[in-house]
Specification:
heteroheptamer; A mainly alpha; B mainly alpha; C mainly alpha; D mainly alpha; E mainly alpha; F mainly alpha; G mainly alpha; C: 5 helices; 2 strands; 72% helix; 9% strand; E: 3 strands; binds sodium ion
C-alpha cells in the first residue's frame, strides 16, 4: 500500500518537476516562467520527498523528509521574490498578454528607480 | 560509469585549460574551478567506482555493509575541495584587488612584467627615530 | 538588499541554518556531516545575513571578529593535537571520554575538539571573505 | 518489474528530462534572470534526484544531502538577484540603460 | 515570551532532524537552541512570534489545497499550446501590518501558482504581486488574496481576538 | 707552511686596524709580514739545495669519496716562486705605503694585497690538486679587487671584470683538468703525480686534461690571444700592477706549467701547444709593446713577451730550456718589478706615464733613474746583468729546440730586438734628454718607493756578476724540479764566443736601431694595423663575445620571458603534453578495455548535463554569469555523481562549496566589469588544440591506471578500525578527523590563511610612494577603475 | 617512534595562532615571531641529534600504523632541510623586525610567515604523498599572501602569475597523486616504494613520474616551467623575497629529490630515460636562468634568475643519481639557501640606503659601506662557487660527480654557467658597490651608519650571521659534506627508509 502511494507520489512529483522545466522553457516572459519554476518545482520536489517518507515509513526519515519540505517552502518563495523583483527592477519586456502593471505606477509615484520597458541588459 | 567518468574528467579538464588561457582573469579563475573539479573527479574514479553501500556503519554493527564505496578517495577529495575553495577565494580576491589597483582584468594588459619595483615595495622608513622599530 | 520579505525571511532562516549546521556538525562522526559541512552551512547563515542586511549589521550579530574566530579555530586544532602528547602519545591521537549520565550519553574527544577547530575556521574563513567582498 | 520499481524508473526519466530541458533555458536565456531561474530549478531537480536515489539505493541517509541543498541553494539565487539589481543600478547611473 | 516560543520551535526542529524523540535529546535541542539564540538574538525582531498552532494547521491545509489546485492549472497551461491567459502586476492593499505577517503572506502567495510577490511598498500598506491569471479582473485577484490567504494568516498571527 | 699562509690571511684581514694603529708607519710594520715569510722560506734553502723536498699536509676534507688535503710541497721551483712572491711582496707593501700615502683606501690596499700574497703563496706551495685550485681561484678573486682598486673609474672596473672573467674561465677549465687528472691517476697530490707522468700521458683523457690545464695556465699567464686583459689591468695603481704583473699572478700560469711539466710534458702535443703558444705570444707582444707610449703599457706587453718566453721554454722541455726558465723567471721578476715601481714613481711624482710627455727627469729623480737604468739594462739583456745570462741561455735553448730550431731562434731574436728597444724607451725617454714640463712638479720619490726598485736592480747586477750566488743553491733545484730529474750546471756571465753571443749582439744592434726609428715606426700605418689586429683584436673579440652573450640573453628573455601569463601557461602545458604524452605513448601504450554498457539513464542524463554545461561555458565566454551558472550545474551534477557512488559527505561538501563559490564569484563580478575576449583565431585554435590534448591525455591516463588491479586494503582497514578503534560510524569523517587528521589540519590552515589573505588583500592599504605616478590606481581606460570604486 | 617529530610543524602553527590572536600588537607579534623561530630551531636541533645518532626517525600520527595513518619521517635529508629552514626562520624573523612595516604586521605578516615555515617543514617531514600535497598547499597559500601583502602594483602583477601558475601545478600534482593511488591503493611513500615496482606496466609508472617531474618542476622553476619565478620574486618586501628565493623553491627541489630517489627508482620506472631527461632539464635550466640574469639590471631580478639557474645544478646532481651527485645536489641546496637569501637581504639594505633596486641608479656602496661590501662579496662569490666559501664544495662535488660519470658536456656546461654566474654577480658589484655615488641619493646615504643610530644593524646582523655561516661551511666543510653524504646514502638505499616506516619487511 505504502509502496503504491509512494509510487504515485514519485510519478506525480516527477511530473510536476518536468512541468516546471517545460514551463520555464515555454512560458513567454520571465515572471511567467517563475510561476512554473517556483510552484511546480516546489510541489514536485515536495511530492518526491513525501515519497521518501512513505517508502521508509520510519519516524526519523519522515521527519527529515518533512524538514526538507519545510526548508524548501521557506526558501523557494524568498528566492523567487528576490529574483523576480530583481528582474523587474532591471527592466524587461512583458509578454503581450500583460494587462496591468501597478508596480510601475507605484515606483513612478515614489520616485524609486524601477522598471522601464525594454529588454533586459545584455549579459554580464 | 567507469568509462564515462574519465571521459567527463578529461572534458572538464580540457574546458578548464581552454579557459585558463583566456585573457580575462575571471575566465582564468573559472578555468581553475573546472580543472579542480576534473582532478577531483579523476581521483574519484581512480579510487575505483562502486554503486554499492556508503561507507557508513549502521548502528548496531561494527563494519559497513559490504561492498561499500571506497571512503579514502572521498576523504581526499573532500580535503582537496576545501583547499581548492580556499585558494579560489584567494584568487578571486586577488583578481578583484588587481582590478582595483590596475584597472583591468586583462592578463595581457596587466601582467606585463614589472620593471622598477623599488619605490612601491618598501614604505618610507624614517631612520632618525629608528623607523618602524 | 532592501526587501522587507527578504529581511524577515532572513531573520528566520539564519536561526534554522545555524541550528542545522550544529546538527550536521555534531553528528558528523557517525553520519554525513562534520566540521566542514557544518561550518559551511553555518557560514551560509551569515552569508545570507550579510547579503540581506549588509556587513555592519552582520558584524553586530556575530560580535566576534571573524579573524579571531579563525585564530580560535586554529587554537583548538593545536590543542586537540597536543593533548595526547601530554599522555605520551603521538600528536593527533584520538583521546576519548565517555560520559554516561542516564539521559545523556555524551562522548567528549579530541577528534571532536579537532572538528570544532575545523568548524570555527571554516566559518571564520567564509565570513571574512564575505565581509571583505561585501563591504567594498 | 513491480509498480514501485517502474515508478522509480519513470521518475528518473522525468527528472532526467527536466534536467536537460532546464538546461535549454540556461542556453537560450535571454536574460541573466532567466538563466538564474533555470539554475534555481535545476537545484530542485537535483534535490528530487537525490530523494529518488535515497529511495532506489535503499540508503535514506542520502536524504541529508537533499536537506543541505534545499537549505543553501537559494543563497546563490539571492546573490544573483543582488547582482542583477546592482548592475541595473549601475547602468542606470551611467545612463546606458537600454 | 515570543523568543521563548522561537526557542521551543528550534528545539523541536532539533529533535525532528535528529530523529530521536527523547527527553535528553529535547534537552540538547533546548541547549543548542539557546546557543543559537545567543548567536542570532540581535537579529531577531522581538515583536512578532506568537502564533496559534491549530490556526496554523488550517492555514497549511488551505495552502496545500491552493498549491495543488493552481499547480494543476499551471501544468495544464504549460502543456497546452499557446497562451490565452491575461496577466499583470497587481497591488494588494494590506491589512496585515507586521513584517512577519507580510512575509508569510508574500511567501505563501509566491508559493501558490499563479501569483508571485514582487514588492512591498515602503509604508508596508501595499503588496505587489505578479498574477498569471487576471482573466476575471484585478479586483478578483485582490479579493481572493484578501479573503483567502491573508485572512488565514491573520487568524494564526493575531489569535482569536482579531477575528471579526 | 699552512701556518705562514694562514698568518698572512689573518694579518691581511686585520690590516685595516693595524693601519689605524700605526698610521704612517704601517707600511713598515706590515712589510714585516712578507719579509718574515721570506726569511722563513729562505731558511729552507739549504735543505732544498741539498736536494731534499719538504712536504706538509693537513687534512681538510677527508671522506671516502672526497679527499682534500691542505698539502704543501716545497722544492726548488716552489721555493723560488715563494721567495719572489714574499721578497717582492715586501717591497710592494712598502712601495704601496708611499704610493698611496694619504689615500683613503690605503688600508683596503694592504688588506687586498696581503690576501693576494697569501693566495699566491698558496698556489705555489700547494701540493694537493684541489688546494692548488682553491688558491688559484683566490688569486683570481683578490686580483679582481686589486685591479679594480681605482673603482670609481669606469675603465678600472672594466679591466677588473675582464681579468676576472678571463682568468675565471681558465680557472674553471683548470678545475676540470685537475679533477680529471685526479681521476685518471687516482692521485690527488702533485708530489705523487710527479712520478706517475706516464699514467697520465697514456690515459685516454690526456689531451682533454692537457687542454684544460693549458686553458687555465694560458689565461692566467696572458698568453696570446688571452693576453688582452693584462695591459688593461694597468688601470690599477702601480703597486698593484708591479706586483701582479711582474712577480706573481701572471706567473702562476708559468708556475703551473712548470710544475706539471714532469706530469704532462715531454709529448709532442705538449711541445707544439705549449712551445707554440709561447713562441707566438713572445713574438706578437714584444712588438706590441712598441706601439704604446704609456710606460706601464710598454712594460705590460714586455711582460707578456717574457711570459711567452717562459711558456715557450717549458714547451721545449730540454735541459737547457729548464735552466733558462729558472734564470729567466728570477731575472724577469727582479727587473720587471723594479721597472714597474719606477714607472709608478714617475707617474706619482710627475703626474704622467706617457713617455712623450716626459723627459730629463734624471736630475730630479736620480735614485729612481739609477734603478730604472740597471733594470732596463737587465731587461735588454746587456752584460753584466743577470738578464744577459738569462737571454743567453734562452737563445741556447732555442737553438737546441727539438722542433724547427731555426724558426724558434729567429722569432726569439726578432722579439728580443723589440724588447731592447722597449728597455731603451722606458729609461731614456723619461729620464734623459731635454727637461719636459710635467703635470706635477717632479722630485725624488720617498724612500719607501725607491728602496724596492733599487735593491731589485742592484740584485740584478749582483747575480749577473756573481751568478754562483744563486745557481747551485736555487737555480739547479728549480731547473731539476721542472725537468723532473736532477740536473747540474754552472752559470757564468761569459760563455765564450758562440752563436748566442753573436745573436745577442745582433739583438742589441737591432734594438738600438729600432729605438732610433721608434717615433716613426709607432706612427706608421703597418704598426697601427698591427696594434689594432693583435692588441685590439682579442679585446674586440672579448667584447664582441660579451655583447653577443648579452644580446642572446636579452633576446631569450624578451622572447620567452615576455610577461604574458598565457604564454607562460601555454609553454607549461605544451611541455606537460609533450613530456607526459610522449612518455605515455612510447613507454606505456594506450589501454582501452572499457564500455558504456551498464550505464543508467540518470547517469547518461548527468553526463549530458555536464557536457552541455561545458558547452554553455565555452559558448558564453562573453557572459561571465552564464559561465558561472554553467559551472554551477557542473558542480551540482558532480555532486550527484559522487552521491550515486556512495559518497554522501562528498556530495554535501560539493553542493555547499559550489554554492558558496557561485556566491563569491558573483560578489566579485558585481565590481569587476566584463572583458570582451579578444584573441586571434590562431591563438584560439592553438589553445583549443592544447586543451583537447590535455583532456584526452587525462582521460587515457585514468583509463590506463584503472586497468591496473586495485587493492583497497587501506579502506578495508579503515572499515574495520573505524568504529571499534576510532569510535566513529562515518568512516569518511573518521578519516578526516582521526586517521588522516594531519591532512585536515593542513587543509584547515589553508582555509584559515585564505581568510586572512582575502582580508588583507581587500582591506589593506596599498603601498607606494606618493610620487609614484602609478599609485593613483590609474586605469588604462579610467572609467573601469571608477566603476570598480563606485560600487 | 619519536613524538617530537611533529614539533617542526606544530611550533610554527602555535606561533602563528598566537600571533594571530595578538595581531593588534606589533610589539607582541615580533616577540612571538622571533621566539617561535628560536623554539623551532631548538626543536630541530634536538631532532637532528636523534637522527644523527639513531638514524631515521619516524612518527605515526594519531598512533595509526603506516600505511594507514600519516607518517612523519625524518631522514638526514629531511633533517638538513629542516635545519636550514629553521635557521632561515630565525634570520628572517630578526630581519623582519625592521624590514616589515606596521601595516603588514597588522594584516598578518607574522602568522603568514610562520605558516609558510610550517608548510615548508611539513613538506620536508611528511612520508605521505597526499600529505605532501596538503603541505604544498599550505605553503602556497601562505606564500601567495606574503607575495601580495601590500597590494602594490608590482606585487599584484607578480602575484597573479605566481598564483595561477602554481595553482595549476598543484592540481597537476594532485592528479599525479591520484594516479599513484589508483595504481597502488596506497599513499604512504614507503609503501609506494614497495608497491610501485610491483605494477606491471612500468611505462605507466614512468608516465606518472613525468607528471611529478612537470608539477614539481613548476614549483622548483626548472626549464621551461620557471617563468613565474623571475616574474614575481622581486616584488615583495625583501624579507619575503629572501625566504622565497632561498627556501621556497628548494622545497620543489626537495620533492623532486624525494620522489625520484624513493618512488621512481630503477625498480619501478625506466630510470635511464628519466635521468636522461633530468640531465637535459638541468642543463637548460642552468643556461637559460643565467642568461636571464645576464640580461637584467635590477638587483633582485638578477637574483631571481639566478635561482632558476642554480636549480639546474641541483637537478643535475639528482640526475647523476650517484652518492656523489646527490651529495653535491644536497650540499648545493643548503649552500644556495644561505647565499641566495643573504644576497636578497643585502639587496634590501642597499635599497634602504640608496632608495632603489635599479642597478643603474645605484653606486657608492663600497666607498661608504665597505663592511656591507665585504658581506656582499662573501655571498656573491660563494654563489659563484669560489673557494673557500660554501659554494665551492657544492661545485666541486658536482664537477667530480659529473666527471666520474664521464658526463663531460653537462659538466662543462655547469662549469661555464658558473662563470656566467660570476659575471652577473660582478655586474651588481661593479655598479652598486664600485660604481660612483649616483647624483640623486636619499639624504641619509653615506651618513647613516650600519651600526648604531638608525638601527640598520637589525638588518645587518642577520646578514653577518649568514655570511659567517657561509665562511664556516666553506672552511670547515667536512662535517657538512659528511652529513650530505649520509643523506645521499640514505636516499640511495631505500630499504632503510622503508624499514623505518613500515617495519621489517
Ligand atoms: Na584527510
Ligand atoms: Na581533510
Amino acid at each position: 500500500m505504502f509502496e503504491i502511494i509512494a509510487g504515485i507520489l514519485l510519478i506525480s512529483g516527477g511530473f510536476f518537476v518536468l512541468v516546471a522545466s517545460v514551463g520555464i522553457l515555454r512560458l513567454p516572459d520571465i515572471l511567467m516562467r517563475m510561476h512554473a519554476s517556483t510552484k511546480a518545482g516546489t510541489l514536485g520536489a515536495g511530492l518526491i520527498l513525501l515519497a521518501v517518507a512513505f517508502t521508509y515509513g520510519e519516524i526519523g526519515i519522515i521527519s527529515r523528509a518533512v524538514a526538507t519540505i519545510i526548508f524548501i517552502l521557506m526558501t523557494a518563495p524568498v528566492a523567487a521574490h528576490a529574483i523576480g523583483r530583481a528582474a523587474y527592477k532591471s527592466g524587461f519586456k512583458f509578454w503581450k498578454g500583460t494587462v496591468v502593471d501597478d508596480l510601475k505606477t507605484y515606483y513612478e509615484r515614489s520616485g524609486t528607480p524601477g522598471h522601464e520597458d525594454g529588454e533586459l541588459p545584455k549579459e554580464d | 560509469m567507469d568509462t564515462i567518468l574519465p571521459i567527463l574528467a578529461g572534458t572538464i579538464f580540457a574546458t578548464g585549460i581552454y579557459l585558463l588561457l583566456r585573457r580575462s582573469l575571471i575566465l582564468t579563475i573559472i578555468g581553475i574551478i573546472l580543472i579542480s573539479n576534473s582532478v577531483n573527479l579523476a581521483l574519484f574514479s581512480l579510487g575505483r567506482l562502486s554503486t554499492e553501500n556508503p561507507p557508513l556503519i549502521k548502528a548496531g554493527s561494527l563494519e559497513p555493509l559490504a561492498p561499500f564505496a571506497n571512503p579514502l578517495p572521498q576523504a581526499l577529495i573532500l580535503t582537496a575541495i576545501v583547499i581548492g575553495f580556499g585558494l579560489l577565494a584567494f584568487a578571486l580576491a586577488l583578481a578583484y584587488r588587481s582590478y582595483r589597483e590596475l584597472g583591468t582584468v586583462d592578463q595581457d594588459e596587466l601582467l606585463k612584467d614589472a620593471e622598477d619595483t623599488s619605490a612601491a615595495i618598501v614604505p618610507k622608513n624614517d631612520f632618525k627615530d629608528g623607523g618602524d622599530v | 538588499m532592501k526587501s522587507l520579505i527578504l529581511h524577515t525571511a532572513t531573520r528566520l532562516m539564519i536561526g534554522v541554518l545555524v541550528l542545522f549546521s550544529l546538527f550536521l556538525f555534531f553528528r558528523g562522526h557517525d553520519e554525513p556531516g562534520g566540521g566542514f559541512i557544518g561550518g559551511l552551512v553555518g557560514a551560509g547563515a551569515f552569508t545570507l545575513y550579510a547579503i540581506a542586511f549588509g556587513t555592519e549589521a552582520t558584524r553586530k550579530v556575530l560580535r566576534i571578529h571573524p579573524i579571531t574566530l579563525i585564530a580560535y579555530g586554529l587554537l583548538s586544532l593545536v590543542v586537540s593535537g597536543l593533548i595526547p602528547m601530554f599522555m605520551a602519545e603521538p600528536f593527533l591521537t584520538g583521546k576519548w571520554l565517555f560520559i554516561e549520565w542516564g539521559a545523556f550519553d555524551t562522548k567528549l574527544s579530541t577528534p571532536l575538539l579537532f572538528d570544532i577547530g575545523v568548524y570555527l575556521c571554516v566559518v571564520g574563513f567564509i565570513v571574512t571573505v564575505i565581509f571583505s567582498l561585501e563591504e567594498e | 518489474m513491480d509498480f514501485f520499481s517502474l515508478a522509480i524508473s519513470i521518475v528518473y526519466v522525468l527528472l532526467s528530462l527536466s534536467l536537460l530541458v532546464s538546461l535549454v533555458r540556461v542556453i537560450i536565456g535571454p536574460s541573466l534572470a532567466d538563466r538564474v531561474v533555470a539554475l534555481d530549478l535545476i537545484a530542485f531537480v537535483v534535490i528530487s534526484l537525490i530523494a529518488t536515489y535515497a529511495i532506489s539505493s535503499g540508503h535514506p541517509v542520502y536524504l541529508d544531502v537533499a536537506i543541505v541543498l534545499a537549505l543553501v541553494a537559494f543563497l546563490g539565487t539571492i546573490a544573483f538577484a543582488r547582482f542583477i539589481i546592482m548592475r541595473a543600478e549601475k547602468l542606470r547611473k551611467e545612463g546606458t540603460h537600454v | 515570551m515570543k523568543i521563548f516560543l522561537f526557542h521551543i520551535i528550534l528545539a523541536l526542529i532539533w529533535t525532528a532532524v535528529t530523529a530521536t524523540f527523547s527527553f535528553g535529546n529535547l534537552l540538547i535541542g533546548l541547549i543548542l537552541g539557546y546557543l543559537v539564540l545567543i548567536v542570532v538574538e540581535p537579529a531577531i525582531d522581538k515583536n512578532h512570534y506568537t502564533r496559534r498552532v491549530w490556526k496554523g494547521i488550517t492555514l497549511i491545509l488551505f495552502f496545500l489545497k491552493e498549491l495543488v489546485v493552481s499547480s494543476v492549472r499551471v501544468a495544464i497551461d504549460v502543456m497546452r499550446p499557446g497562451f490565452h491567459m491575461k496577466s499583470g502586476v497587481v497591488d494588494i492593499p494590506l491589512t496585515v501590518t507586521s513584517d512577519l505577517e507580510i512575509t508569510i503572506l508574500a511567501n505563501m502567495i509566491s508559493l501558490t501558482p499563479g501569483t508571485l510577490s514582487l514588492e512591498v511598498s515602503e509604508d508596508k500598506k501595499e503588496l505587489f504581486i505578479h498574477a498569471m491569471y487576471i482573466d476575471e479582473g484585478v479586483e478578483h485577484v485582490r479579493e481572493n488574496i484578501k479573503n483567502g490567504m491573508e485572512r488565514h494568516i491573520m487568524e494564526v498571527t493575531r489569535g482569536v481576538q482579531v477575528r471579526d | 707552511m699552512l701556518t705562514v699562509i694562514a698568518l698572512i690571511f689573518i694579518v691581511a684581514l686585520v690590516s685595516p686596524w693595524i693601519h689605524k694603529l700605526f698610521g704612517n708607519k704601517s707600511g713598515w710594520v706590515l712589510a714585516l709580514l712578507p719579509f718574515g715569510s721570506f726569511l722563513y722560506l729562505a731558511s729552507w734553502l739549504p735543505h732544498i739545495t741539498a736536494g731534499n723536498v719538504v712536504q706538509q699536509s693537513t687534512p681538510w676534507v677527508s671522506m671516502a669519496l672526497f679527499q682534500v688535503d691542505l698539502a704543501f710541497y716545497l722544492d726548488g721551483l716552489s721555493l723560488m716562486f715563494g721567495l719572489i712572491i714574499t721578497g717582492i711582496g715586501t717591497f710592494i707593501v712598502l712601495y704601496g705605503s708611499g704610493y698611496l700615502s694619504g689615500d683613503a683606501y690605503l688600508s683596503r690596499f694592504y688588506c687586498a694585497v696581503l690576501l693576494f700574497m697569501g693566495s699566491m703563496l698558496g698556489v705555489v706551495l700547494a701540493d694537493n690538486l684541489i688546494s692548488i685550485f682553491v688558491f688559484w681561484e683566490l688569486t683570481s678573486f683578490t686580483s679582481f679587487i686589486l685591479i679594480g682598486f681605482s673603482h670609481e673609474q669606469e675603465n678600472s672596473r672594466k679591466a677588473a671584470l675582464k681579468a676576472l672573467l678571463v682568468t675565471g674561465i681558465g680557472g674553471l677549465a683548470l678545475l676540470a683538468g685537475l679533477v680529471l687528472m685526479g681521476f685518471a691517476s687516482g692521485h690527488w697530490e702533485v708530489s705523487a703525480l710527479l712520478n706517475e707522468g706516464d699514467i697520465i700521458r697514456n690515459h685516454p683523457h690526456y689531451l682533454a686534461i692537457l687542454i684544460l690545464v693549458l686553458a687555465g695556465a694560458f689565461t692566467k699567464s696572458a698568453q696570446f690571444p688571452f693576453s688582452f686583459w693584462l695591459p688593461g689591468a694597468m688601470a690599477a695603481p702601480t703597486p698593484v700592477s708591479a706586483y701582479l704583473h711582474s712577480a706573481t699572478m701572471v706567473k702562476a700560469g708559468v708556475y703551473l706549467l712548470a710544475r706539471m711539466n714532469p706530469v704532462l710534458g715531454s709529448t709532442e702535443t705538449w711541445l707544439i701547444l705549449v712551445g707554440g703558444f709561447g713562441l707566438l705570444t713572445l713574438l706578437v707582444s714584444a712588438w706590441l709593446a712598441l706601439s704604446f707610449t704609456d710606460m706601464k703599457q710598454i712594460l705590460a706587453y714586455s711582460t707578456v713577451m717574457a711570459l711567452g718566453t717562459m711558456i715557450m721554454l717549458i714547451g721545449l722541455g730540454t735541459e737547457m730550456a729548464m735552466k733558462g726558465l729558472a734564470v729567466y723567471i728570477l731575472s724577469h721578476a727582479m727587473y720587471k718589478g723594479a721597472l714597474f715601481m719606477v714607472a709608478g714613481a714617475v707617474d706619482h711624482e710627475a703626474g704622467t706615464r706617457d713617455v712623450l710627455k716626459l723627459g730629463g727627469l734624471r736630475p730630479l729623480m736620480p735614485i729612481s733613474f739609477a734603478a730604472a737604468a740597471l733594470a732596463a739594462i737587465s731587461m735588454a739583456g746587456i752584460p753584466p746583468l743577470y738578464g744577459f745570462i738569462a737571454k743567453e741561455i734562452v737563445y741556447e735553448a732555442a737553438l737546441e729546440a727539438p722542433l724547427w730550431p731555426v724558426l724558434v731562434i729567429t722569432l726569439a731574436v726578432i722579439a728580443n730586438i723589440a724588447i731592447v728597444a722597449a728597455s731603451a724607451i722606458v729609461v731614456i725617454r723619461p729620464f734623459l734628454g731635454k727637461k719636459v714640463e710635467t703635470p706635477k712638479k717632479a722630485h725624488e720619490a720617498p724612500l719607501t718607493m725607491w728602496i724596492g726598485p733599487l735593491i731589485l736592480a742592484v740584485l740584478g747586477v749582483l747575480f749577473g756578476v756573481l751568478p754562483f750566488l744563486v745557481d747551485r743553491s736555487l737555480m739547479i733545484p728549480v731547473a731539476s724540479s721542472v725537468f723532473g730529474a736532477p740536473m747540474d750546471f754552472y752559470l757564468s756571465l761569459w760563455h765564450g764566443f758562440n752563436l748566442p753571443l753573436v745573436l745577442s749582439l745582433l739583438t742589441l744592434t737591432g734594438g738600438i736601431l729600432v729605438y732610433l726609428v721608434w717615433d716613426r715606426l709607432r706612427e706608421s700605418a703597418p704598426m697601427k694595423v698591427y696594434q689594432s689586429g693583435f692588441a685590439m683584436g682579442p679585446i674586440n673579440g672579448y667584447e664582441g663575445l660579451l655583447a653577443g652573450l648579452l644580446g642572446l640573453a636579452g633576446w631569450q628573455t624578451r622572447t620567452i620571458q615576455n610577461g604574458l601569463m598565457s604564454n607562460y601557461l601555454i609553454t607549461i602545458l605544451v611541455t606537460m603534453l609533450v613530456a607526459v604524452g610522449y612518455t605515455f605513448i612510447t613507454r606505456s601504450g594506450l589501454v582501452w578495455n572499457h564500455s558504456f554498457e551498464n550505464m543508467l539513464l540518470q547517469e547518461w542524463a548527468l553526463s549530458i548535463a555536464i557536457l552541455t554545461s561545458l558547452g554553455i561555458i565555452l559558448a558564453f565566454r562573453n557572459s561571465r554569469l552564464t559561465m558561472v551558472i554553467g559551472a554551477g550545474v557542473v558542480g551540482f551534477s558532480l555532486a550527484l555523481i559522487y552521491l550515486m557512488h556512495g559518497a554522501a559527505d562528498l556530495a554535501m561538501t560539493q553542493v555547499l562549496v559550489e554554492t558558496l563559490t557561485v556566491i563569491l564569484v558573483v560578489l566579485v563580478l558585481i565590481h569587476v566589469p566584463k572583458l570582451i575576449e579578444v584573441r586571434s583565431t590562431t591563438s584560439r585554435i592553438r589553445d583549443a588544440v592544447v586543451a583537447v590534448g590535455a583532456g584526452v591525455l587525462m582521460t587515457l591516463l585514468i583509463l590506463a591506471v584503472t586497468a591496473v588491479p586495485f587493492d583497497a586494503f587501506i579502506s578495508e582497514y579503515y572499515a574495520e578500525a573505524s568504529y571499534p578503534l576510532a569510535h566513529g560510524r562515518n568512516i569518511v569523517n573518521v578519516i578526516l578527523v582521526d586517521f588522516r587528521a594531519l591532512d585536515t589540519m593542513g587543509e584547515v590552515v589553508v582555509v584559515a590563511i585564505a581568510g586572512l589573505a582575502v582580508y588583507a588583500l581587500i582591506k589593506m592599504k596599498r603601498f607606494g610612494s606618493p610620487d609614484d605616478p602609478e599609485t593613483e590606481g590609474a586605469a588604462p581606460d579610467g572609467t573601469a577603475s571608477k566603476q570598480g570604486k563606485s560600487s | 617512534m619519536n613524538g617530537l617529530l611533529v614539533l617542526p610543524v606544530a611550533i610554527p602553527l602555535i606561533t602563528a595562532t598566537l600571533a594571530l590572536l595578538f595581531r593588534k600588537s606589533s610589539q607582541l607579534q615580533r616577540w612571538i615571531g622571533v621566539l617561535g623561530m628560536v623554539a623551532l630551531l631548538g626543536a630541530v636541533l634536538v631532532l637532528f641529534r636523534d637522527v644523527h645518532n639513531d638514524g631515521i626517525q619516524v612518527l605515526q600520527l594519531g598512533n595509526w600504523a603506516a600505511p594507514f595513518g600519516i607518517t612523519l619521517v625524518a631522514d638526514m635529508l629531511a633533517m638538513l632541510m629542516l635545519g636550514i629552514s629553521a635557521i632561515m626562520g630565525v634570520i628572517i624573523g630578526i630581519y623582519s623586525i625592521f624590514d616589515i612595516d606596521r601595516e603588514r604586521e597588522r594584516f598578518g605578516y607574522y602568522p603568514l610567515l610562520h605558516i609558510l615555515i610550517m608548510g615548508v617543514n611539513g613538506s620536508f617531514l611528511t612520508g605521505d604523498i597526499f600529505n605532501l600535497y596538503v603541505w604544498f598547499e599550505v605553503m602556497l597559500i601562505a606564500s601567495f599572501t606574503l607575495l601580495a601583502l601590500g597590494n602594490s602594483k608590482n606585487q599584484l602583477q607578480g602575484a597573479l602569475k605566481y598564483v595561477f601558475i602554481n595553482l595549476f601545478s598543484s592540481l597537476i600534482f594532485l592528479f599525479g597523486v591520484a594516479l599513484l593511488y589508483g595504481m597502488t591503493g596506497t599513499l604512504n611513500m614507503a609503501d609506494l616504494a614497495v608497491r610501485l615496482p610491483q605494477v606491471e606496466n612500468t611505462g605507466l609508472v614512468t608516465t606518472v613520474a613525468m607528471i611529478f617531474l612537470v608539477s614539481f618542476g613548476i614549483k622548483s622553476a626548472i626549464f621551461p616551467l620557471f617563468f613565474w619565478l623571475p616574474a614575481s620574486y622581486h616584488t615583495p618586501p625583501v624579507a619575503i623575497s629572501a625566504i622565497f628565493g632561498g627556501l621556497l623553491t628548494k622545497v620543489g627541489v626537495y620533492a623532486l629529490i624525494r620522489v625520484f630517489t624513493l618512488l621512481f627508482t630503477d625498480a619501478s620506472v625506466h630510470n635511464d630515460y628519466l635521468h636522461h631527461i633530468l640531465l637535459w632539464v638541468g642543463g637548460f635550466t642552468m643556461v637559460i636562468g643565467v642568461l636571464g640574469a645576464a640580461s637584467h639590471m635590477e638587483f633582485r631580478k638578477i637574483l631571481s634568475f639566478h635561482i632558476v639557474s642554480q636549480i639546474g645544478y641541483m637537478i643535475m646532481g639528482l640526475a647523476f643519481n650517484t652518492a656523489m651527485g646527490l651529495m653535491g645536489a644536497i650540499f648545493y641546496v643548503l649552500h644556495n639557501i644561505l647565499a641566495k637569501s643573504n644576497l636578497f637581504l643585502i639587496s634590501g639594505i642597499a635599497q634602504r640606503l640608496l632608495g632603489t633596486f635599479e642597478l643603474k641608479k645605484m653606486g657608492g656602496l663600497y666607498k661608504h659601506y665597505p663592511f656591507l661590501a665585504v658581506l656582499f662579496l662573501i655571498s656573491a662569490f660563494a654563489l659563484a662557487g669560489f673557494p673557500p666559501l660554501s659554494g665551492f664544495w657544492a661545485k666541486l662535488s658536482l664537477v667530480k660527480a659529473g666527471l666520474s660519470l664521464e658526463l663531460y658536456v653537462i659538466t662543462g656546461v655547469a662549469i661555464l654557467v658558473g662563470l656566467l654566474t660570476l659575471f652577473s654577480m660582478t655586474k651588481i658589484w661593479l655598479t652598486a658597490f664600485w660604481g660612483t655615488v649616483p647624483e640623486e641619493v636619499p639624504g641619509h646615504f653615506g651618513k647613516l651608519p650600519l651600526f648604531g643610530a638608525g638601527k640598520l644593524y637589525i638588518l645587518v646582523i642577520p646578514v653577518m650571521i649568514i655570511a659567517g655561516m657561509i665562511i664556516l661551511v666553506g672552511l670547515n666543510a667536512q662535517p657538512f659534506l659528511e652529513l650530505c653524504m649520509t643523506a645521499a646514502e640514505q636516499l640511495l638505499d631505500t630499504s632503510v627508509y622503508i624499514e623505518a616506516v613500515l617495519g621489517p619487511q
